[in-house]
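name: query_chain
kind: protein
chains: 1
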Amino acid sequence: MLIEHFEFDCYENKRKGSVNRQEQARVERKFDKIPNNQEGVYLHDTIKGVSSYSNYIANVSNAFKTIIQNLMNT
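structure:
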């Protein structure tokens, strides 16, 4: 039995993965650098990137192509 887990988004995938995930990590790192204080913290930033249906289809297609290639090579 083979069970596989897939996760896709609508953002472009580059060498380092989803642009959305890269941006989320960038914002989280920025947030983690802010010291805690009694007054609280306010952080405002924007996730940069363009989401689209065509990116989603490309991400799904590329993921399945990679899985099929890996299965054929084993």
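note: Helices lie at 19-32, 53-72.
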